[in-house]
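User: Could you go from structure to sequence for me? I need the amino acid at each position, not a summary. Structure tokens:
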């Protein structure tokens, strides 16, 4: 089943430290069922970040993956953290990157 885990981080100001840290984290993530890890910056609010983990597992983890929960705990000292799980309701695209880890920015 395909599902999405999103960790939102709101940091004070425009400090580059959280962005650099999350870039390194996103580039090194690995877990069974993890299809893609993408880091987003908010379009208009400096310091607002989102790390989206796209999963394809037998069953979704309704409270979050061990990886996501661990990341959430690690990020709490950087600012306000929110963690949510989303399950695919419908899709207009075909199967992409099945069984292969794709990282945001990779072609």
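Assistant: Here is the amino acid at each position, in order:
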């Amino acid at each position: 089943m395909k599902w999405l885990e999103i960790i939102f981080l709101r940091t004070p100001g425009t400090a580059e430290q959280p962005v650099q840290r999350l870039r390194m984290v996103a580039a090194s993530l690995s877990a069974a069922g993890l299809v893609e890890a993408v880091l987003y910056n908010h379009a208009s609010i400096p310091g607002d970040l989102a790390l989206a983990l796209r999963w394809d597992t037998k069953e979704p983890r309704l409270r979050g993956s061990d990886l996501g929960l661990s990341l959430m705990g690690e990020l709490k000292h950087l600012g306000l953290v929110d963690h949510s799980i989303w399950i695919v309701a419908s899709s207009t695209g075909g199967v992409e990157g099945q069984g292969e880890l794709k990282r945001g920015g990779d072609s």
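One structural detail worth keeping in mind: Residues 97-102 have pLDDT under 50 and may be disordered.
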